[in-house]
Design brief:
Marvel, mainly alpha, 173 residues, transmembrane, 65% helix, MARVEL-CKLF_proteins, transmembrane helix
Length: 173
């Protein structure tokens, strides 16, 4: 499945611009995908970014205990960096530029992996640290992992729905 033949699951159409376009580009032809900015998937990513940043601030601003704070801090920073990269790919329509990469699949696995890492780091810091700021950071990390899990589920359902429609339209014996 390449990016050219798979429809997006957030109901924004992808149209290419003509090389000799003299008028101002229409909303569907613009370089920024405004449909993704207000989609459920993007809102889940924004909420995850907010809670990851809050978890990082909580953990970084309180006294450290037994090295567990470093694990949660690193995981939250890596989640923020990866989710920002994924948002940039979708908002600036870079999926069409790199047709050999299945960004839906990449987004699914990256989001699932980050949710699992964030959940493990948050549970570890809540279990081993009894400093209130560290526990608050762990709670924020768990909430962020729930947002990431919700995003992964939405991606999975969209891919499954797309696979079912492609199978039904491929023809019968």
């Amino acid at each position: 499945m390449s990016a050219h033949n798979t429809p997006s699951n957030y109901k924004a159409t992808i149209q290419t611009q003509s090389a000799h376009h003299t008028e101002a580009p229409t909303e569907a032809e613009s370089r920024i995908d405004k449909g993704y900015l207000i989609s459920v998937r993007a809102i889940l990513k924004y909420a995850c970014l907010l809670f990851c940043f809050t978890a990082f601030i909580c953990v970084a601003s309180t006294p450290q205990c037994s090295g567990n704070h470093v694990f949660l801090s690193v995981v939250t920073v890596l989640v923020v960096i990866m989710q920002i990269c994924i948002i940039v790919v979708y908002v600036f329509r870079l999926r069409t530029k790199f047709s050999g990469i299945d960004f839906e699949l990449l987004d699914f696995f990256a989001t699932s992996y980050e949710a699992l890492n964030l959940l493990i780091a948050s549970i570890a810091i809540i279990n081993y640290c009894r400093v209130p700021g560290q526990m608050a950071g762990g709670a924020m990390g768990i909430i962020a992992s729930l947002f990431l899990s919700g995003d992964a589920v939405i991606i999975f359902w969209a891919q499954r729905k797309e696979t079912n429609t492609n199978t039904q339209h491929s023809g019968t014996r």
